[in-house]
User: What shape does this take?
Amino acid sequence: MITASRDKRGAVTANLCYRAVLETIANAEALAAFQFIPEAEVYAFEHWPLERRKIDEQDARERTSRLVPRQVAVVIGGGSGIGHAAARRFAAEGAHVVVADLDQAAAEAAARETATAQPDRAIAIPVDVRDDASLAHLIRRTVAEFGGLDCLFYTAGQAPRFAGLTDIGREDLQRQLDVHYVGAVLAIGAAAAVMRRQKTGGSIVASVSKAALAPGPEAVAYGGSKAA
Assistant: This one.
């Protein structure tokens, strides 16, 4: 059974309700017979004015008090630092958050901390931005868990080996480019593809560094990859 709603909690609640209905029907038919009440009465029961007003007021409060209510945000590099702080802020502003990081333990810890303050708002998914299959899994799992993707914040980072221009090697350059440039471009492309199919817009932000403009004499690989 597949159920849909404005957020994951609503979809899960609907699923549980329908399963309970099916169980009730089966039990009733085992005893005698089951019969639905008239459709007009069902509508009146589910949409009576007071209940409708409570739902509308809750929606209005969320729209005015939170920046991204019920949106789905993926934070790549969310296990620590800027990414961790961003994940907490996304959840506080009403979003469902996927904390993605190469360090699975750090991602899970960050997601647990976020979920403590905002229940049912965060999950952790390990990701290696240097691996196409890992990125694809991240996007698929996000959509499966929360029903879509509205925001991507890319802040994955690779610790640099500081070396001057005469000492830097191809391996150093490629390691930085794979995370800061190639991984970012592929992650942004994968997220944008989902947003395009949804036709509801979206937001994509990639963090860089002051080293992109002023890398310093021994940050050739790091600064160059950030500038890219």
Q: What stands out?
A: Residues 8-64 form one domain. The CA atoms of residues 54 and 74 lie 30 Å apart.
